[in-house]
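User: I'll paste a sequence; please echo it back and then give the predicted structure.

Assistant: Echoing your sequence first, then the prediction.
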Amino acid sequence: MYQHILVPVDGSPTSNLGLEESIKLAKLSGGRLRLVHVLDGLMFVTGLEYCTADLLGLMQKAGEEVLRTAKARVEANGIAVETVLSQACGGRVCDVVAEQARLFDADLIVIGTHGRRGIGRLVIGSDAEQIARTASAPVLMVRATDLDATTPRSSSGTSASEPTSSAVAA
């Protein structure tokens, strides 16, 4: 089934929902996880080039901590896991994730998403949607709801505690 599951993580509650779903899938399939954190320097462009090195150093330390915390959660469940800290280098986060999926030979990418619709999606955009469009592996989006951000929902609207086979992979 799913032997190589790629999980982009950023430490947010939504990202953690995707991580929890990937842990469930890996337990069921006997698979292993690769956790990926992408440093997106363009997200913090300020026009103050002289502080770029300091900012990237802080982002790298924060990314390492996100990966360390997520890896501990996975290992606590007895699942094989590896981590990758990558940098977008002016590119798009989705392209870095798609490349990591290719390098890992991922059978599945699991990612948390806010599930925004309408103007919110238009204005803010969606890394999860861009990943689904660019990745060669199937993508399972675990949607957080506004009502209960602690109960993951698959893109089909089912609770993550229900069988994952009802989830729609993008």
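The mean pLDDT is 79. Helices lie at 13-29, 52-75, 93-104, 118-124, 127-134.
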